[in-house]
Amino acid sequence: MVFLDERKKAILKAIIDDYINTAEPIGSRTVARRHELGLSSATIRNEMADLEDMGYLLQPHTSAGRIPSVKGYRLYVDELMNVEELSREEIEYIHESLESNISEIRQLLKQASVIMSKVTKYTSVAVTPYMREIKIKAVQVIPIDSKKALAIIVTSAGMVKNTIVQLPRPVDLDFINRVSNLINDKLSGTTIDKVDESKFQSIELEMWQDRDIVGALLAGVEETLKDMDNVEIYLDGTSNIFNFPEFRDIIKAREFFNILDAKDILRKILIQNKTGEKSGVEIRIGTENEIEEIKDYSLVTATYSLDDVLIGSIGIIGPTRMAYSKVISSVNYIRKKINNDLRNFVSDLNND
User: Fold this and answer.
1) Which residue, 8, 173, 220, 223, has fewest beta-carbon neighbours within 10 Å?
2) How do 309-319 and 123-127 pair as beta strands?
3) pTM, two decimal places
4) Higher pLDDT residue, 152 or 156?
5) What is the tens place of the pLDDT at every residue in 262-276?
6) Full 3-state SS string of 40-107
7) What is the pLDDT of residues 196-231, one digit of tens each?
8) What are the residue ranges of helices labelled H in the chain?
9) What is residue 351's predicted lDDT score, i.e. its pLDDT?
10) Which CATH number fits domain 132-228: 1.10.8.60, 3.30.390.10, 3.30.160.250, 2.60.40.10?
11) What is the DSSP string of 116-127?
């Protein structure tokens, strides 16, 4: 392993800082002029050549300056960059935006996606909860009329879904209430992924004489569970990419929008980071991404969780020439705010 001394690190940091700001290859004279390193441009040029040989820099053209490689960006993110704190105005904006008229988890995540895009000036992505490991808090069947009912499911994460059920024959209120209580007793406290055919069969066996009605109601419950498990993806700030020179090329811009249109790719992107809340923010730069379509981009993601159960992700996608410090600070702050709001939301729900 080649040792990278402090002088090389200082030069590498200066080059990456300047390249992030200018999108132009950086030469030795530029580094000498802009940064007080106490080094001549000839010395810096020699060090830059060494950094290129070591894989931290690339030279796009023989007469041009250098740009960072993925390896260079990785060292920068892990060791060299200065952590940028959010301003008081940005913190106030985040809090005000997340606390205004939000009464449901998907609203919270959708708004968080908008906020991330506005604060970072990049494209933000958020995915709604992975409900498979979330517990069912309550199941209720409410009669609408003699041949119609409403199946409602509430989860421990505060998600509420319902489905209208058409009944094969008229039934009275007391019967609907008995079925509702039985379904609730059997399913409440169970995680969604544990609700299988055997659970429904045990309910039907207890009320086999009215299995036509019970079967219809259970079908409504099953449909509600499937609807609850559908993942939604929110995108904001897609036009922000035109603020970066990398995407002024129409082919590059079209490739980026093709990725954003592919919901399955976006879902894969966001579920790569499944290490939980303690891991904080995860940064994948260029070829570090496992998914082929985004190997030319950088991705900064964070998970959000409830009671140590991972239920979703938020993230920023953009060029490898990303303002990592600002993005990481923003995503991490919003991640903590979402996790805190989730806990408060569910606590309020349980106290109702």
Assistant:
1) 173
2) antiparallel
3) 0.77
4) 152
5) 777 777 777 655 444
6) CHHHHHHHHHHHHHCCCEECCCCCCCEEECHHHHHHHHHHHCCCCCCCHHHHHHHHHHHCCCCCCHHH
7) 888 888 888 888 888 889 999 999 998 888 877 677
8) 6-22, 28-34, 41-53, 70-75, 88-98, 105-120, 173-187, 197-206, 211-228, 250-261, 263-271, 324-351
9) 59
10) 3.30.390.10
11) HHHHHSSEEEEE
Strand, helix or coil for residue 161: strand
pLDDT top residue among 1 and 233: 233
Distance between CA atoms of residues 138 and 122, nearest Å: 39
- The residue written with tokens 């007080």 in the block is 36
Q: Rounded distance, CA 334 to CA 328, Å?
A: 10
The answer to whether residue 306 scores a pLDDT higher than 50 is yes
Calpha distance 259→254 (Å, rounded): 9
Contact (CB, 8 A) for 122 and 240: yes
Element (H, E) at 139: strand 136-145
- Residue 15's alpha-carbon distances to 8, 39, 118, 154, 315, in angstroms, are 11, 14, 27, 53, 26
Cα separation of the two ends of the chain: 60
Pick the CATH number of 88-130+231-351 from 1.10.287.110, 3.90.1150.10, 3.30.450.40, 2.60.40.3710: 3.30.450.40
**pLDDT tens readout for residues 71-117:** 999 999 999 999 889 999 999 999 888 876 555 677 778 888 999 99
Domain 6-80 has CATH 3.10.180.10: no
Of 268, 270, 241, nearest to 254 by C-alpha is 241
92's tokens:
């106030």
pLDDT score at 226: 81
pLDDT the model gives residue 44? 94
Give which of 324, 332, 340, 328 is closest to 20, Cα–Cα.
Answer: 324
Whether residue 311 contacts residue 157, with contact meaning beta carbons closer than 8 Å, is answered with yes
Sorted by where each begins, the domain ranges of the chain are: 6-80, 88-130+231-351, 132-228
For the record, the structure tokens of 284 come out as 């994948």
Distance CA 68, CA 286 (A): 11
